[in-house]
Automatic annotation (TrEMBL):
One of its GO terms (molecular function) is ATP hydrolysis activity. Keywords: ATP-binding, Cytochrome c-type biogenesis, Nucleotide-binding, Transport. PROSITE patterns: ABC_TRANSPORTER_1, ABC_TRANSPORTER_2. CDD domains: ABC_DR_subfamily_A (cd03230). It holds the Pfam family ABC_tran. PANTHER family: ABC TRANSPORTER, ATP-BINDING PROTEIN (PTHR43335:SF4). GO terms for biological process: cytochrome complex assembly. This is Heme ABC exporter ATP-binding protein CcmA. SUPFAM superfamilies: P-loop containing nucleoside triphosphate hydrolases. It comes from Nocardioides currus. Residues 6-210 form the ABC transporter domain.
C-alpha cells in the first residue's frame, strides 16, 4: 500500500438540526487525486474546511501522513497546500512580490527562478508588477493558484480551483494537476467541472446523495 497522505475518518458536521456531513471517510495516497463532487450545499467546502482545520467537525478525525493536523508545526504547513475561497492578498504587494514572499517564507531555494517559471506558466508575467486590486478576477484566481505552485507541497486541497479561469486556463490546470500526481503528490479536488474531474481524479467521493 502506498503512503497514506490523508486519512479522513467519520467526519460529521452539523449546523443546528441539519447534518451536512454524516461520517464521511476519505483517503488519499501519494500520486493519487480524489474528487469530491455533489450539488450546491451538499457539504463539499465544509468537508475541505474540516480537513484543513478551518472548521471543527462534531465527530471524526483527519490525519496528515498519519499525524493529527497541527498548523502550528512548520512541517505540516509545508506539506499542505490549500486553495479555497478567494484568498486575501496584501493590497500593497505586487503579483511577483506575493509569490516571492510565499516562496521565501517556505524556504524554497532558487526562489527567484521558481517564481519566474510559475509566473510564466500561469500567464501572469505581463502583470507581474501590478497590485492585486488591478487584476481581473481570473488573474486573481491565477495568482492564488500560482501561490500553491511556488511553495513546497505534498498534498493539495483545492476547492473549485477552475473558478473564473478561461478555457485555456482550465486545460492548463488539468495538465498541471496530472503532473502534480506524477510527481508523487496527492490531491483532493472539489469541482463542478466534470471534464476536469475526469481528467485529474482517480476516484470520486459523492456527497449529498442521502
Ligand atoms: N457556518 C455555517 N453555519 C450554518 N450553515 C452552514 C455553515 N457553513 C455551511 N453551512 C451550510 O452547510 C451546507 C453545506 O455548505 P457547503 O458550502 O459545504 O456546500 P458545498 O457543497 O461546498 O456547496 P457549493 O457547491 O455551493 O459550493 C449548506 O447548506 C450551508 O448553508
Amino acid at each position: 500500500m502506498a503512503d497514506a497522505l490523508l486519512t479522513v475518518r467519520g467526519i460529521t458536521r452539523r449546523f443546528g438540526e441539519r447534518t451536512v456531513l454524516d461520517a464521511v471517510d476519505l483517503d488519499v495516497v501519494a500520486g493519487e487525486a480524489v474528487g469530491v463532487v455533489g450539488p450546491n450545499g451538499s457539504g463539499k467546502s465544509t468537508l475541505l474546511r474540516c480537513i484543513v482545520g478551518a472548521d471543527q467537525p462534531d465527530a471524526g478525525e483527519t490525519l496528515l501522513s498519519g499525524q493529527q493536523l497541527d498548523e502550528r508545526r512548520a512541517e505540516v504547513r509545508r506539506d499542505l497546500a490549500v486553495v479555497m475561497d478567494d484568498i486575501d492578498f496584501f493590497p500593497d504587494l505586487s503579483v511577483v512580490e506575493h509569490l516571492d514572499l510565499v516562496a521565501r517564507a517556505h524556504g524554497q531555494r532558487d526562489a527567484e527562478d521558481l517564481v519566474d517559471a510559475v509566473l510564466d506558466e500561469v500567464g501572469l508575467m505581463q502583470v507581474s508588477g501590478q497590485l492585486p486590486s488591478t487584476l481581473s478576477s481570473g488573474q486573481r484566481r491565477r495568482l492564488a493558484l500560482a501561490s500553491v505552485f511556488v511553495r513546497p507541497r505534498t498534498l493539495l486541497v483545492l476547492d473549485e480551483p477552475e473558478q473564473r479561469l478561461d478555457v485555456e486556463g482550465v486545460a492548463w490546470l488539468g495538465e498541471k494537476l496530472v503532473a502534480e500526481k506524477a510527481a508523487g503528490r496527492g490531491i483532493v479536488l472539489v469541482s463542478h467541472d466534470p471534464d476536469l474531474v475526469a481528467k485529474v481524479c482517480d476516484r470520486v467521493v459523492r456527497l449529498g446523495d442521502a
